Amino acid sequence: MEPDVSVETSAMIRIAIIPIGKIPHQTLRDYYSMFLHHHTIPLSSISSFYTEEQKSPFTNQPWETGSLRFKFVLGGAPPSPWEDFQSNRKILAVIGVCHCPLSPDLDSVIEEFDGVCKGYASARVTRCFGFFPCDSQLEDGGKKGENLRLFPPADRQTQEMHLQTMMQEIAASLLMEFEKYVFQAESAGTILKTPLDSQASLSSEEVIKAKKRRLGRAQKTIGDYCLLAGSPVDANAHYSTALELSRLTADYFWYAGALEGSVCALLIDRIGLKDPSLEDEVRYRYNNVILHYKKSFIPENAQRVSPLSFELEADLKLARYLCRRELAKDVVDLLTSAADGAKSLIDATDRLILYVEIARLFGTLGYQRKAAFFTRQVAQLYLQQDSKLAAISALQVLAMTTKAYRVQSRASISNNSHINVSIQARWKIETMHVMVAGMLVLLAGCSVESSIVDSSGLTTLFP
């Protein structure tokens, strides 16, 4: 499972932002914050970088109103075994970030960046951005190949304008790469598999069925790339074909995936339009998505791999789409169903993400006590895992739901980087103090022995 999923997630292009060379943590964060301003690139802004080498397969591309959507992943991410099934899970571009004053040797920078890119076979575009180069680096940079782009020293506003131009160029490059992929997929008969397929023992009859399913899966994947390319009408046409072919071959899992994509295409195509029937259509289709994910469950694979996480993600996506007070009952039903399914999830990390998302949605809905209950579930799961990322997630949700349990927190970081965190809690269940203390201990990188918890719930951490 993945955090912060929504119906529109299928249209987001993942771009890994990777630090290259020596770069202070805060400097990296500052650079990363500049990228966040460019998560949406209008198609109308990339025409000067775009070259149509052959007639585009995206025949209904909305050049005036459409856009490409980026999702930046700081530090990158390992490849997902489900990338064939949902193309938006792939890292489709890699951007290296280099702080030139601490990396004087550009040859070493390029060598390190090339090595990093080898770990992202799915990336269609790679660029390395060097910030604040000196004069000699600027002079030398032009000889290092087109993937190295240097940003001359300038104020923040100028740097952001330069970055905007670079992101427009990357958007155009990605669009042209998507066109190439679609042409290849239509002609090459690409074989697409998921872990559900690899677990099945294929009889001769199953092999024949797999060949028949290939066409439907290819159409679904082409629809994915149309969606990533910002062309929802083209995406919907391919999804419609995929739905028909998947239905004929009883390929329920891919049917559900194509139906999910069609909902995303529908929303993007009608963005900005007030259509009272749209919500009912989204609800109807997503209920079908959930139903077909249920149908794709294979009992003999249940202990090793399961489509359950996709079913629960669909619950969360629909709940997030409907999440407002007047539809509270529907949202609560979806979140309750997702919580019930958590018991059957194979991966404990999936369960953790699920509880975090349920808590967030209950908090958004205004159901603070329910949100706090699932925060407690997060804390319990966290204590079973030695994971600082899990601690951060738990504490973020806890901060959102403090009112429900009258928890007040304050944190200070001294000049010598010693971390002192105090939490004063009034909750009748004493174990809450222990769980919060445990979260803070690992978050601060301390051992349990270096923490003191008194009976009032006051926790002090020592480095």
TrEMBL record:
User: Can you tell me where the transmembrane regions are?
Assistant: none
Q: Which residues form a coiled coil?
A: none
Q: Which Pfam families match?
A: TPR_TRAPPC9-Trs120, TRAPPC9-Trs120
Q: Show the GO cellular component annotation of the record.
A: trans-Golgi network
Sorted keywords for this record are:
Golgi apparatus
Main localization (coarse): Golgi
* Xref: PANTHER family: TRAFFICKING PROTEIN PARTICLE COMPLEX SUBUNIT 9 (PTHR21512)
Name-wise, this protein is Uncharacterized protein
The protein's organism comes out as Populus deltoides
